[in-house]
Write a structure and sequence with these properties.
Blueprint: H1 4-18, H2 39-51, H3 70-82, H4 91-104, H5 107-118, E1 124-127, E2 143-147, E3 150-157, E4 168-174, E5 185-191, E6 197-202, E7 211-222, E8 226-227, H6 233-244, H7 249-270, H8 276-296, H9 303-325, H10 344-352, H11 362-373
Parallel strand pairs: 1-4
Antiparallel strand pairs: 2-3, 3-7, 4-5, 5-8, 6-7
């Protein structure tokens, strides 16, 4: 592989050359609260990336990736964000499931599922959270039974991002009757396009519906579509969460920086910068972002501590955005004929309210840090 700077130059030059023509209009489109934007165009863009070898750059070469080092992956995500390239549509398959299959899947799993992920031919969603088991993942009630060479799945998942666009879902289900908590769970690969699967969109504060609730009623998948041994799904699920909070968050932080710089510019133009409290909060936000970047580049950083930090930082930035905007932040402009047409700062505020909840709530993350990292006594449970 080339050096980090050579790799950075290569991806920067490729983006400059290819994010043009029909793809130029996609710049800045998509992302949290905006996944509905130009989805078909973003899908076509990502398939274009795949055709030129720019998907799954961190995967081993033998599985279709570039075998990029951690520093090269960081460079890729940073340059992608700096180019204002559109939000990825295949993040869940490429960054979560793919590495999980490489680490824990069978050779058949890798042959069947990795090539379509790399080529962006099959999209995936994550079937973890449930109405009574959101951040408490070990309390899942969705069940699966092995009969006649197939798993039959029954239950409900919620907050399932992009389920309405996905062909497959990796589902954490209870496969051992009578089991409790972490025991007796299995990690199943379930096709979405079948009679036993119903997807219902959930309207969010932003007025969009990138999250869904998914109902499994006799849904089926092949007996071999279990990752890890049946009953050992907890370990595989935790591995997936580790990949979820990996180097791709460096690109996320470039977006955070852009939001902060936009707020600082607005504060200077509308006079909000004259308020010493606003100036102080802007400076603290900048310091926090620098600390976040430095922490994320440390390989020993615990995923739970990183999630706690960036979620609260981003939520606070959304609140700061409303204070910098002042009274106009209370009105949705409707500039495009939509009475609920939000600007970027309003969308930042509303969507960031969920940052401390999704991907593991703050309360659960603190328990993980306390019990698994600091070695404190476990919380008393009924």
């Amino acid at each position: 592989m080339s050096s980090v700077e050579e790799f950075r130059t290569e991806i920067r030059r490729w983006l400059r050359t290819h994010l043009t023509g029909e793809f130029a209009a996609l710049k800045g489109r998509g992302g949290p609260g905006r996944e509905h934007e130009a989805f078909d165009g973003r899908l076509a863009w990502e398939r274009h990336m795949a055709a030129h070898g720019w998907t799954c750059v961190g995967w081993p070469v033998e599985h279709g990736g570039r075998g990029a080092s951690t520093e090269q992956q960081i460079a890729f995500h940073e340059e992608y964000a700096l180019a204002d390239a559109p939000a990825r549509v295949n993040h869940i398959g490429e960054q979560l499931l793919g590495p999980t299959l490489i680490a824990h899947g069978t050779e058949e799993h890798k042959r069947r599922f990795l090539p379509p992920i790399r080529a962006v031919e099959e999209l995936w969603c994550q079937g973890y959270s449930e109405p009574d088991a959101g951040s408490d993942l070990a309390a899942v009630r969705t069940r699966a039974t092995l009969r006649g060479g197939e798993w039959t799945v029954d239950g409900q998942k919620i907050w399932t991002s992009l389920a309405h666009e996905s062909q497959w879902c990796f589902v954490l289900a209870r496969t051992e009757p009578g089991s409790r908590r972490h025991a007796g769970l299995s990690y199943l690969l379930v096709p979405m396009d079948q009679p036993g699967v119903e997807v219902r969109p959930i309207t969010q504060l932003t007025g969009t519906s990138e999250f869904n609730e998914v109902f499994f009623d006799g849904a089926r998948t092949d007996a071999a579509h279990v990752v890890g041994a049946p009953g050992d799904g907890w370990a595989v699920a935790m591995a997936t969460l580790g990949f979820e909070r990996g180097v791709s968050t460096l690109g996320q932080q470039v977006g955070f920086r852009r939001e902060l710089e936009d707020l600082a510019a607005l504060a200077r133009s509308n006079g909000a910068i004259a308020d010493p409290l606003v100036r102080d909060r802007l400076v603290k936000a900048w310091i926090g972002l620098e600390a976040m970047r430095a922490t994320a580049r440390r390989p020993a950083t615990a995923p739970s501590t990183a999630k706690l930090y960036w979620a609260r930082w981003h939520r606070d930035l959304g609140e700061l955005a409303m204070d910098v905007c002042g009274a106009p932040s209370l009105l949705a402009a409707g500039a495009h004929g939509d009475p609920y047409d939000l600007d970027d700062r309003q969308r930042l505020f509303l969507f960031s309210r969920a940052d401390t909840i999704y991907a593991g709530s703050d309360e659960i993350q603190r328990n993980i840090v306390a019990e698994r990292i600091l070695g404190l006594p476990k919380e008393v449970r009924a």
